[in-house]
Amino acid sequence: MCLCLPASVYCFCMLLASTTDVYYSLLLFVSAYCCLLLICCSACYCAVFVVAAVFMLLLLCCYFCVAVSMLLFLCCCFCAVVSVLLFLCCCCRVVVSILMFMCCCCNVAISTLLFLCCCCYVVVFCLSVVVSVFAG
Question: What parts of the sequence cross the membrane (predicted)?
Answer without folding.
Answer: 27-60, 72-102, 108-135
